[in-house]
Each structure stands twice: as C-alpha cells, then as structure tokens.
DNA sequence: AATGCCTCCAACCGCAAGTAA
DNA sequence: TTTACTTGCGGTTGGAGGCAT
C-alpha cells in the first residue's frame, strides 16, 4: 500500500515562501513551539503542507542557524566526515552547529566536490584520482566493459590539470577551528557515536549560538527568549525587509493566538 | 544592451524509519 | 502483528541572479 501524500495538494501553495508566510510561521512557532508539523499550517493560517513548513523552519528560519559560507575549517570538517560517513548529510550537519544538512549537501555539490576534483581527489572515495584511474585501468584490462568509469575519471583528471591552485575562501580558519577539526577527526569515539546514532557532545563548544544542552538530534531548541533575541538581532536575515519590525509584537500576537481557535 | 549559459541554493519529491492505535 | 500516520533523510529540480559573449 502506497503512502498518502503529505498533503492533499488541493489549495496547498508551493514554491518560494513569501515574507508574509515566513512571518506567520515564525510567529506561530515562537508562540507555540514545535508541535505536530501536520497541524502547523492549519493552526498558523498557512496554505502549505506541514512538510514544507518543517523544511522552511529547519533550513531557513530556525534561529540557531549560522548563515553565510562555510569557513575553511568547517569545509575541512565536512570533507573528513564525508570520507568516513558518506552522504549522511544529517549526521555531518549534526557535527556542525548552526548548519543544516541541506546547506551542507548543497555546499558539497557546488563547492567541495569541484575543489576535490581540482585537487585530484575523488569526492566519492576520497582516494587520489590517479590511484582510482590506475585501479580502473587494471580492471578494464581484465574486462572490456568499464568504459563509463574511464570517462568519468578522465573528466576528473582533466579538471585537475586545469588549475591546481585551490581557491582560497574569504573566510580564514582560526587555530581554534583547526584544533576543532583535529579533535573531531581523531576522536574515534565521536565517530562511533555517529554510527551508533548516539548523541555525542557537541564539539564546537566555542560556538555560542546553541545552548550547551542542545543535542545533535535537535531534541531541544534554544529557549524562546533566545529565539526572540535572535529575531531582534536579525540584520543578516534581512528581517526588516519583510516587515518584521513587528516581532516586538510577539506578545501581542501570542495574545491573539490565545484567542484563536482551530480553524 | 541583449542573449544565452552557468552557478547556486531553496524547495520539492519519494522513500524509509519510527510510532501509535 | 498489521495498518495508518508522522517525521526525517537524501536525491533532485527549477528559478533567480551572475557572468560571458
């Protein structure tokens, strides 16, 4: 039996979120906290499916998100974790406070992958492409049907010869970040905990955007007071662009929510 | 200035896992 | 145990903006 769609599609809006929708969602979640996502759009007065609301919140609106490009240290950490965990983006994201799996996945596909190829490293196996190529040739000498692999790997080689000067990101990596990476990469117990799905302690304790008690599984969010503080400090977010000056009216809205009945 | 191509990333889709009845 | 439902995850897509011609 197939699964039902997460929403009935009829009357459900799709595509980019408007400022007004963001506002409604934030207001609702700030007032009520996260509850059943399926009920959120209805209760928040949104014509969206719950899945869309959850995605919008976790990937964009969540107050504990870091914004902007990944630092070199974060990037290096992603590479190392990917080498060990593969495309387990959520697991990788759990090691980078304030970063979402979607963000890391996108960054991997758009930046890191290319960077590794330029460096002559296979982004899938994390082995040097030369080695992969030699291996493939060895295999092809025994079997004749490995043409596809050659094409891919030759492409990689071609790219690597293009320009070996790795692009320097504008973000500098601090010594602390380097130490952080070392500690993570050398910490087998930490990686074991990732495999075992156990919540390991956040390594990046120096990052103060998330309270220490927050777990990797996102079982708890920063306090709503902190959320509000973030919203008031949302210059990066451009929140005023969509009339978020009203965030000071949260209390007012909460009063309204109190009176609001389920539609 | 106009056009086409490329890049990036927000959002969607479908599947799997977890869970309640 | 089975079924129905919710949530989370990873792959993919599409559109906006930037860049080259």
Automatic annotation (TrEMBL):
Polar residues bias spans: 157-176
Disordered: annotated segments: 139-176
Pfam family, one: Myb_DNA-binding
KW Transferase (keyword) present: no
Primary location recorded for the protein, binned into one broad class: nucleus
GO biological process: carboxylic acid biosynthetic process; regulation of DNA-templated transcription
Keywords: DNA-binding, Nucleus, Repeat, Transcription, Transcription regulation
All residue ranges annotated as the Myb-like domain in the record: 9-61, 62-112
Designated name of the protein: Protein ODORANT1-like
Organism expressing this protein natively: Durio zibethinus (Durian)
A GO term from the CC aspect: nucleus
Database matches in PANTHER family: F14D16.11-RELATED (PTHR47994:SF5)
InterPro entries: Homeodomain-like_sf, Myb_dom, Myb_TF_plants, SANT/Myb
């Amino acid at each position: 039996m197939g699964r039902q769609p997460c929403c009935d599609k009829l009357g459900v809006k799709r595509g980019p979120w408007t400022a007004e929708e963001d506002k409604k969602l934030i207001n609702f979640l700030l007032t009520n906290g996260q509850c059943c996502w399926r009920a959120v759009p209805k209760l928040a007065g949104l014509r969206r499916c719950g899945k869309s609301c959850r995605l919008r919140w976790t990937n964009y609106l969540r107050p504990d998100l870091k914004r902007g490009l990944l630092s070199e240290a974060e990037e290096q950490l992603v590479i190392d974790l990917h080498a060990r965990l593969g495309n387990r983006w959520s697991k990788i994201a759990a090691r980078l406070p304030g970063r979402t799996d979607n963000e890391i996945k996108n960054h991997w596909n758009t930046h890191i992958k290319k960077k590794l190829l330029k460096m002559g490293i296979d982004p899938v196996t994390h082995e040097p492409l030369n080695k992969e190529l030699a291996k493939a040739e060895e295999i092809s000498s025994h079997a004749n049907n490995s043409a596809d692999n050659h094409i891919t790997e030759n492409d990689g080689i071609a790219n690597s010869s293009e320009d070996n000067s790795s692009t320097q990101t504008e973000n500098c990596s601090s010594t602390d970040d380097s130490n952080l990476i070392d500690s993570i990469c050398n910490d087998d117990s930490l990686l074991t905990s990732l495999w075992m799905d156990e919540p390991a302690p956040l390594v990046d304790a120096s990052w103060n955007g998330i309270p220490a008690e927050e777990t990797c599984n996102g079982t708890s969010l920063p306090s709503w007071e902190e959320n509000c503080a973030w919203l008031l400090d949302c210059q990066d977010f451009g929140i005023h662009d969509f009339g978020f000056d009203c965030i000071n009216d949260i209390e007012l809205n909460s009063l309204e929510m109190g009176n609001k009945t389920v539609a």
